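Weekly puzzle thread! Below is a chain. First person to post its structure in token form gets bragging rights.
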Amino acid sequence: MTNELIWVNEADEVVGYGEKLLTHRERRLHRAFSIYLYDAGKRQLLLQKRAENKYHSGGLWSNTCCSHPYRQESFSQSIRRCMRDELGVAPRIAEVTYKGREWPQNTRIPCEDGVLLFAGQYLYRASFGELGEDEIDSVFLFCPDDAFLSMITPNPLEVAELQWFSPEALDEMLEDSPGRFSRWFSGTYRLIKALLCHMGGF
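Winning reply:
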């Protein structure tokens, strides 16, 4: 089944596949991804407030969008599907530009339109009633062009609100009101901040 999630061990090696509800009920560690859209000119990240009807973390601020890669999907295919489902538009994107775990020190990374940058991985576990989130979350930064931004039409079943934030505003919100964010946000945001430091974005 192409919609099966990908089960992995803590080294991110594939150990099996399973349906989404079963995966979360049995607390199987699996692959996920988080995407942040970044406006390099304004030095701002686009965040999503999750729809209230989501089975967990409804009404909380989080990354621009997130999902799971399905069996036999590349990350680029998964990310296009996710953006289409949540933002109403699927971008043209290059493949991941760096597949290692860290960028080399003192490397200046360009943020070019349509380029998908890998920021790192974050192992995240949380309980939500009878279900759990046990994920190796691959975090990506996407630099959209103006044409893509003009076509964004949030899916109200997924997204309650979209808003651009400066790093200063985000840091202040996280310090003053961490409960306004999803549980995985701070871990993924740290990776994005480290990547943007290489780019001169923060």
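Puzzle host: Confirmed. Bonus trivia for everyone else. Strands lie at 5-8, 14-18, 30-39, 44-50, 61-62, 65-67, 116-128, 131-142, 159-165.
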